[in-house]
């Protein structure tokens, strides 16, 4: 067995033994990532009925499911991902690469000038395994999410963004602090302990 296929097998074994994977299957969530957002919601109370939420990097839809659950029938969830996503009730989906202008324009047109209460981003690049390549790509996606959030959020709005600790993290954290009145770091229990991922929760956008 090649080294690559062995590591793939180990990943699959871990995945299917994962308590959050089993829980997601039992409770009807599309991904274990749903529990990361649920834990953030428990601590930070970001979602409220009637809100407009944009979900970046949405596929397969776990975060969109959580968002829709909390904003309710009067709320709105607009999801975007480079990958296809099976339709979800009440979710408006745009397929496209967030790094390109066309999907961003489609997203802006869908909002029709309405301001957004919350932007949530679970975006991550396709990893090469080389930190010197992967980390800048990840930080770039975080920068794009912040730029977008500053354009569409209402005053006092919030942003949740996945980020990987490493080069560029401190500068990005400072950038968030200059744009929002409160910024905290969260490492949900559902986030694998070996992963460098954390979530930055930025609340109360400065006017």
Structure report:
By secondary structure, the chain is of the alpha/beta class. The protein has a single domain (31-205), classed as Rossmann fold (3-Layer(aba) Sandwich). The protein has helices at residues 3-17, 19-27, 34-44, 62-71, 101-111, 131-152, 169-179; strands at 52-56, 76-81, 91-95, 116-121, 153-164, 180-186, 197-205.
Q: What keywords describe this structure?
A:
single chain; 207 residues; alpha/beta; Rossmann fold; seven-stranded mixed sheet; 7 helices; 24% strand; globular
CATH level-four homologous superfamily name:
Vaccinia Virus protein VP39
Count of the separate structural domains: 1
Q: Strands of the biggest beta sheet: in what spatial order?
A: 3-2-1-4-5-7-6
What is the architecture at the second tier of CATH? 3-Layer(aba) Sandwich
Low-confidence stretches: none
- Principal-axes shape call: globular
Question: What summary fits the major beta sheet?
Answer: 7 strands, mixed
Query: Which whole number gives the mean pLDDT?
Result: 90
The CATH class, by name, is: Alpha Beta
DSSP E strands, number: 7
Intertermini distance: 57 Å
Kindly state the percentage of residues in helix.
40-55%
Rg, rounded, reads 17 Å
Fill in the CATH topology: Rossmann fold
What is the structural class? alpha/beta
The portion of residues forming beta strands comes to 15-25%
Question: What's the topology here?
Answer:
Layout: H1 3-17, H2 19-27, H3 34-44, E1 52-56, H4 62-71, E2 76-81, E3 91-95, H5 101-111, E4 116-121, H6 131-152, E5 153-164, H7 169-179, E6 180-186, E7 197-205
Parallel strand pairs: 1-2, 1-4, 2-3, 4-5
Antiparallel strand pairs: 5-7, 6-7
Helix pairs in contact: 6-7
